[in-house]
Structure to design on (79 residues):
């Protein structure tokens, strides 16, 4: 899965619990958009997979998946 802001360039996304990981600025911008509506993220970013732009429905499902994963990571018990 690649994503890029509506400007040239592709970025791989990666989410980790590591507190030392500092996301790329555009990845951080994408993460920040996840706190807003789907339309906000879709207006600002174009999501592609294997060079094909995701449909609006596919992009919304991807956004929902990422939100779910981020939520699950914040609710994990401490070890």
């Amino acid at each position: 899965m690649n994503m890029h802001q509506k400007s040239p360039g592709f970025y791989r996304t990666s989410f980790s619990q590591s507190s030392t990981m500092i996301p790329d600025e555009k990845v951080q911008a994408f993460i920040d958009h996840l706190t807003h509506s789907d339309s906000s993220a879709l207006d600002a970013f174009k999501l592609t997979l294997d060079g094909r732009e995701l449909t609006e429905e596919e992009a919304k499902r991807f956004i929902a998946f990422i939100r779910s994963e981020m939520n699950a990571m914040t609710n994990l018990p401490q070890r």
